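Human: Here is a favour to ask of a fellow structure person. Comparing notes only helps if you start from a blank page. Give me a protein, with the fold worked out from its sequence. Please set it down just below, with no commentary around it:

Assistant:
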Amino acid sequence: MADPFLEVAVDAARRAGALLLERFGSLRQIRYKGSPSNIVTEMDRQAEALVIDCIRGRFPHHAILAEEGGARSGSTSHRWIVDPLDGTTNYAHGMPFFAVSIALEVDGLVQIGVVFDPNRDECFTAIRGEGAFLNGHRLRVSETPTLDESLLSTGYPYEIRKIRDNNLAEHAAFMVRCRSVREMGSAAINLALVAAGRLDAFWELVLGPWDVAAGCLMVEEAGGRVTTPSGGPVNLEAPSVVASNGRIHDEMLATLRDVRGQAPSG
């Protein structure tokens, strides 16, 4: 692992993952971020502080955008995007499905991505132009040719109780068009699983940059395709994502257009 940026990202993700596992099942503080379905734990903050310390120790002048702490000023060319605990609700309920996600954006383009699943000791990595890997082994997306044969995954907005654009109609439409749909509670892991070929596609309508920055790069570097639900490029500042093996992508977009009443992008 010769890339110094990737080395730092992997080290930080593994350290944070070890901390999360050490405290797993012994939460003492859970706070709400606006609604009962949007929570933060003491471990989100502790893991985030650890990741930031690792980054600042090597690259003190780089900017950082982290889910809990927000933006920290620094270099206008290098920005780290950090989710210290993707799958907080799972973690808070003792469900072993969560991850640490770290990405490095250089001049507005994500160049490095790491998603570490400490429960399985699976470290997914990607470098733009060099491929995606799981514990050092190259990843490729699945070869599933049709939506009908596909296993999909999705997620829901935290404000699902209040907003109409809540992904329920989309989920219902896919459920009768594919093999099955999973909702597992971690966008970062879902994207990594698409890159690994375990899922054929993932879509979600409302996400944060820290949820998808690393995982979207992995899908692309593993040979997949990533767009918005209308088929355009993903806006990392307010991402809405469809990520697939590429083979079923047009069917995914067509289904979403049917439900959402959108014309093709472009």
The chain has two domains: 4-138, 147-260. The CA atoms of residues 231 and 265 lie 5 Å apart.
